[in-house]
Amino acid sequence: MEVRLPLTMTGTCLALLIAGCSPGDEKHVPGLEEKTAQFEQSLDAITDPKLKDAVTELGGSLLLLERAQQRLDSKPVHTEYGEDALGILKHYPSPQALVDTFISGLFVLHKDSSSDYLTDLQPVFPFNLNVPGGFLFPHGVDWQSVTLSNKRVIAFQPEWSETDPGIQLSPSSSNVTNPDDLTVTYPFIDGLDVDKKNQPQPVSLQGQVEVIAPKRLHSFDLGKQDVGQTRTDGNLSVTLLKLEKNYAEVEFSNSLPLAPEVANTALNPLLVQARDTSGQYLVRAGSINESPAQVAFYQKQLTQLQQQKAWSDSLEQQLDVDQRTFEQQHPRRYNKVYFKGSIDKLEVTVLDFSQATTTRKTLELPVREFDSHTTAKTVQPLDLPVTVYDDQAANWLKGASLTEEQLKASVHIRQSVDEPSAARIEFDHRKTFNDELLGDDFSPGESPVTFFTEKSSGKRDEPIELPAEAYQVDPLQSVITYDLNLFPETPAIAIGSMPLFLATVAKQSHDARSLPKGLEIRNNALVVDQKLFPANEWRFFVKDDSGNYLKQILSVSHDAGAEGPALFGVHYFYGRPTQVETYQRTDLATVQYGFEVKLDKAPQSGTAP
After folding, report:
1. How many CB atoms lie within 10 A of CB 88?
2. Angle between helices 32-43 and 49-74 (to 10 degrees)
3. Do 210 and 348 have their domain in common?
4. Which terminus of the chain has a smaller tally of CB atoms within 10 A, N or C?
5. pLDDT in tens, 412-429
6. 473 with 512, same domain?
7. What's the sign of the alpha-carbon dihedral 158, 164, 166, 167?
8. CB-based contacts of 179: which residues, under 8 Å, 6+ apart?
9. Could you tell me if 530 and 485 are in contact, meaning their C-beta atoms sit under 8 angstroms apart?
């Protein structure tokens, strides 16, 4: 949840607020609904449409901000680790080298849709854009057209048109996880069968990419001892206002003006990261980017607007003057950042855009087609002119040596009793590389569970005799489901054993020039004979001469056909492998996790039986 409050918003803030901040926002925030209702009633007294819109947007924004603040404050602190957002910079000699890699590593995948009238195009970036804040530097891709196999060029349009009878290129509406995806839509003719093979297919995608690199970045390492202190490096300064268990408040400034080429660009020049006592980076839970002084200023403007009878040019001018005056009096920018875990050290990085380098490039990208399973006998090349490293691989591979004690310690028990006929106890554990190698040959064995009543002292009482249909244990999903309607007495405690699964993993390292039979390096690809190295038992990671793991682009399994076996697999990487690490599951053990769970009570029905 990243919250930034504009003075005016294009969306209907009040409607969003009434509907809820997000699908996961289920809790009643005390006082907020009442405040919302009062605000909604106050709008009825405003008759001027323009004034009403302004009050709705600003007041709705303030209420949304308050809801976000309370949600972040009330979140329980569960530790979750992520990656160093600056880690990718450590592999490149300059910010510009990172920009060049970002652009040169971009390619486009053809993805079949379930419809004969749709073809999806997925731009694939070499760096993960789905982390908080996305790619480090301001960037944008302006897609312009697609060229089809019949040499026809289809111009890009920002949204699909129901009235356009021709072939269209527009943003995809079906894939929310990849917002950069595009869709080629073919015309639908009712009653006419379409042979997809005869439709002209996309062969290249045209557009322009622009990336802006700052003059420099500087990081300040801060701790409890730095609260209230201002740290400076040249024209950059950072003040740590507060450092609590799971959040920090920071102000920062750049004493130099922005470079002219970014003066009108939306920038996020601050990156706040945190580590706990283990030294690992914590995942961000969200942030608030408006200081208490800013919120007070907006509330003052809202009060001023609510006192007006009508909108006027002079009122608009006065609001603009007040805004500029406030910004001049408060030149420092504010961030309150929450993390999933307890903070030990804070790392605050400021991007210096007092000078900037803008890189623009015209794109003419071939559309490549790689099915995850194919019957093709030849290896299709996908050799991109960049090197990208996987900084998460080393940490992920620690799961290869997971112990029984570590597995048990990672289990988190969750309960759900909202539906009494399907109450649940779930045994979740943090997924590791070990889970990836479990395969599908499980022997869970017995999964006993006994339910008990409770004495007035809170201690366990007698076991409850139950019919077989009263509960069900799913050991493969680590879930116990029970029907409270079939219990003669209210259960208070559950005792039993839930099976967990632990693979024994053997690791070997091989020089690329002396690989064992069944493994072969071809340029940037590792070709694996899947008869010798079955995919459900083996995993492969590669390094180059730097000793860092290379990031995998994608993998393809070449099969004999619908009924035939897998022949060989191809793993493509950003870079040239010089070392191959193999990980083989040599054994699979069942670990019994003994538990005693104090059961949550089902909510009381509001009606008498």
Report:
1. 21
2. 180
3. yes
4. C
5. 999 999 899 999 999 999
6. no
7. positive
8. 171
9. no
